[in-house]
Amino acid sequence: AFPDDAEKAAKLAKLNPYPRFEEQLDELEALLPSQRTDGGRRLLESTGTGASLSAAARRARELLFEERFCHLDLLSGNIMYSEGVRDVDFIDYEYSMRTCVGLDVANHFCAVPESCLILEDTFDVDKYYPSQ
Q1: Across the 132 residues of the chain, what is the mean pLDDT of every consecutive 10-residue run?
Q2: Contacts of 7 (CB under 8 A, 6+ apart)
Q3: Cα separation of 98 and 69, whole Å?
Q4: What pairs with residue 74 in β-bridges?
Q5: pTM (predicted TM-score)
Q6: What is residue 92's three-state secondary structure?
Q7: Which of 9, 95, 105, 114 would give a disulfide with 72, using CB separation of 3.0 to 4.6 Å?
Q8: 3-class SS at 51?
Q9: Across the strands, what pairs with 67?
Q10: Alpha-carbon distance 80 to 97, whole Å?
Q11: Residue 118, Cα to own-chain centre: how many angstroms?
Q12: Are the beta carbons of 115 and 77 closer than 8 angstroms?
């Protein structure tokens, strides 16, 4: 079960993400492809404020909602780079499935804090998500 030790459980309890998550579920459902958004099609039509999307914003959303084979575990330990052949390879496909590309992108950024906590025992938002 997660968390698998007392130290991780204490860190998770300190973060206390669960009340925020429950409060934001309704908002998330309105932002993601779901039955409520007709599989994301309604998200391609407007900004949510009634304004139309720019062509670039619409295309970005189309790409993110496009269903493809996705890895779904793209943390740094599963992305291998070979300097000798200058190539990137991915490993560890047990969570892979056909789903929205945006889910793979979002999941990658959700994995960054976990990787930082494992490697550095801290998560510095400014270091990993600079504003510029």
Answers
A1: 74 73 73 73 68 82 88 87 93 93 86 77 73 66
A2: none
A3: 4
A4: none
A5: 0.57
A6: coil
A7: 95
A8: coil
A9: 100
A10: 20
A11: 18
A12: yes
Bridge partner residues of 87 (DSSP): 82
Distance CA 62, CA 65 (A): 5
Q: Shortest CA distance to 124 belongs to which of 108, 113, 110?
A: 113
Beta strand segments in 33-121, E: 67-70, 79-82, 87-90, 97-100
| 93 within 8 A of 59, measured Cβ to Cβ | no
Indicate the SS3 state at residue 11.
helix
For 110, 115, 120, 125, 126, the CA distances from 131, given in Å and listed in that order, are: 17, 20, 21, 10, 7
Cα–chain center distance at 18: 17
CB atoms within 10 A of CB 74: 19
Tokens of 36: 């409520």
